[in-house]
Specification:
The structure holds 2 protein chains of 2 kinds. Chain A has helices at residues 7-42, 58-68, 79-95, 123-144, 148-179, 184-193, 197-200, 202-215, 227-230, 240-265, 276-283, 285-310, 318-347, and strands at residues 105-108, 111-114. By secondary structure, chain A is mostly helical. Chain A has one domain. In chain A, helix 1 (7-42) crosses helix 10 (240-265), helix 1 packs parallel to helix 12 (285-310) and helix 2 (58-68) crosses helix 10. The relative contact order of chain A is 0.14. The mean pLDDT of chain A is 83. Chain B is globular and about 50 Å long. Chain B is mainly alpha-helical. Chain B has 2 domains: 3-122, NADH-ubiquinone/plastoquinone oxidoreductase chain 6, subunit NuoJ (Four Helix Bundle (Hemerythrin (Met), subunit A), Up-down Bundle); 129-166. Chain B has helices spanning 3-24, 28-48, 52-77, 89-113, 130-139, 142-165. Classes of the chains: A mainly alpha, B mainly alpha. Chains A and B meet through helix 4 and helix 5 of A and helix 2 and helix 3 of B.
């Protein structure tokens, strides 16, 4: 035999990947609905309420509409790159979910299945690498559109994401100094045993949160698609489902960054006030389910925060955005790193 | 042939193929995109050698940051094949000679090294894992490491100074 692979392992991982990707897609789908409802509540409206009970079928209706729209590819654009743009945005958004631990483990058909697609020992760096790839989707799409507004949007996106990646990375270094590991699974186990990392790294969390908003292109940092200045920014020329991919990738990014923040700072799938190891025998597989539910609740809180901020705070000016990134967040993150190092030395942790 | 050597051949073909495509592309933006594919293939090789940290840092730094800046500059200058300056004969001659000389050096070193060097062992060894790499970097090689970081700092300050002048 040419290739010897453990078939059970292969199927197990394949099923897990399919489940994780579908959950990410469904959550992103209903986040669009949630966004419109939250916006409506904050603006004292009713929001979508026609399609299905409470408007619950609205995301399906939106998706159908996008599929049936006319697909337009500009004449003077590079066709391959024009299609590559939204595809890359979508792929990189989904790829991040591979290293996230969704729960501890379950026993099924006599196999112990870890609910994490890949437990690599560089977990968080992998997330970082894929996120830094995400900007290519926007840049390629914006450039291939052959439109000045699109190009401006793409250039803004690139400089914004690179600038905020620095502060994000430095705040992450401080966190890594505390945990001493890069594996997301190990981080969650540590937080189960002691306290959540938010206790040790409050400033680091704040910096990370702001940078996550900027990396997801969410208001108040949605300069790449500022409609009052750039028509629609990098996706001005896009229509139909290719536009849908760009919009959808933003929601998946939001979901994944919420998961990452919960995992890094809020104990991941740790159930608060319950000693998971003690109840592992009596609860059996229900423990894993409870852990996933706990992670989802934390994630939903973050997603609500994303929406709340979007409909409350107006957009920054571009020079303000750059000043915040380079002159406030990076020095603050450096200070945080130094303070963390000093504290570790002092308390001899 | 096991799965490791199969992966090795796929990654090598990918690296060489996209490097050639990068040279042949008329459009500088496409050249950059092909170069990114080369970086991914090389990162794949690092993973085969069990150097996961190196692989992911290669992606973050080269594919994720430096290439974005390249793309940024090329897009802003809006280069395309019609405005590309025609290289004169002397430049081409210099290029051929220096490239040939480099090829000669590589060839002779490979000939000499035959039989002496140990073949690369895949998926064994843990020198590339982040813990061991960090230990070595901050104990045995701490002086070169610090000198390199000072070099980076001076380059950064230099960029700021030039930026302020303009």
């Amino acid at each position: 035999m040419l290739l010897t692979i453990d078939l059970g392992f292969f199927i197990e991982k394949l099923v897990l990947i399919v489940i994780v990707v579908s959950i990410a897609l469904v959550v992103a789908m209903y986040t669009t609905y949630g966004e419109r409802k939250v916006a409506a509540i904050l603006q004292d409206r009713r929001g979508p309420n026609r399609a299905g009970p409470f408007g619950l079928l609205q995301p399906l209706a939106d998706g159908m509409k996008l599929f049936f729209k006319e697909e337009i590819i500009p004449n003077f654009s590079s066709k391959v790159l024009f299609i590559l743009g939204p595809s890359l945005a979508m792929i990189t958004a989904i790829m991040t979910s591979a290293v996230i631990p969704w729960a501890d483990k379950i026993e099924l058909f006599g196999r112990t299945i870890s609910l994490q697609v890949a437990d690599v020992n560089i977990g968080i760096l992998y997330v970082f690498a894929v996120v830094s790839m995400g900007v290519y989707g926007i840049m390629i799409g914006g450039w291939a559109s052959n439109n000045k507004y699109s190009l401006m949007g793409a250039v803004r996106a690139a400089s914004q994401i690179i600038s905020y990646e620095l502060a994000m990375g430095i705040s992450l270094i401080a966190l890594l100094m505390v945990t001493g590991t890069l594996s997301l699974k190990d981080m969650v186990v540590q937080q189960q045993e002691t306290m959540w990392n938010i206790v040790y790294q409050p400033l680091g969390f704040l910096i990370f949160l702001i940078c996550a908003f900027a990396e997801c292109n969410r208001t108040p940092f949605d300069l790449p698609e500022a409609e009052s200045e750039l028509v629609a920014g990098y996706h001005t020329e896009y229509s139909s489902m290719k536009l849908g991919f760009y919009l959808f990738a933003e929601y998946i990014n939001m979901f994944i960054s919420s998961v990452v923040m919960s995992t890094l700072f809020f104990g991941g799938y740790d159930i608060p006030f319950v000693n998971d190891a003690a109840v592992a025998d009596s609860w059996g597989n229900w423990l894993a389910l409870a852990q996933s539910a706990c992670l989802m609740i934390k994630v939903l809180c973050f997603i609500f925060l994303f929406m709340w901020v979007r409909w409350t705070i107006p957009r920054f000016r571009y020079d303000q955005l750059m000043r915040l990134g380079w002159q406030v967040l990076i020095p603050l993150a450096l200070f945080n790193m130094l303070a963390t190092g000093a504290a570790i030395l002092f308390f001899d942790k | 042939m096991n799965i490791l050597s199969l992966l090795f051949y796929i990654l090598s073909a990918m690296a060489v193929g996209s490097a050639i495509m990068m040279l042949l592309s008329k459009n500088p933006v496409k050249s950059i995109l092909w170069l990114i594919v080369v970086f991914f293939a090389i990162s794949g090789h690092y993973i085969l050698l069990n150097a996961q940290f190196l692989a992911v840092v290669n992606i973050i730094v080269y594919a994720g940051a430096i290439m974005v800046l390249f793309l940024f500059v090329v897009m802003l200058m809006n280069l395309n094949s019609t405005v590309e300056p025609v290289k004169n004969f002397r430049m081409q001659l210099i290029g051929i000679i220096s490239g040939g000389a480099l090829f000669l050096i590589i060839l002779s070193s490979l000939m000499k090294g035959e039989g002496k060097a140990q073949l690369v062992q895949m998926r064994v060894g843990d020198a590339g894992l982040i813990k061991n790499l960090g230990n070595v970097l901050f104990t045995n090689y701490v002086l070169p490491f610090e000198i390199a970081s000072i070099l980076f700092l001076s380059a950064m300050i230099g960029a700021v100074v030039i930026g302020k002048k303009a």
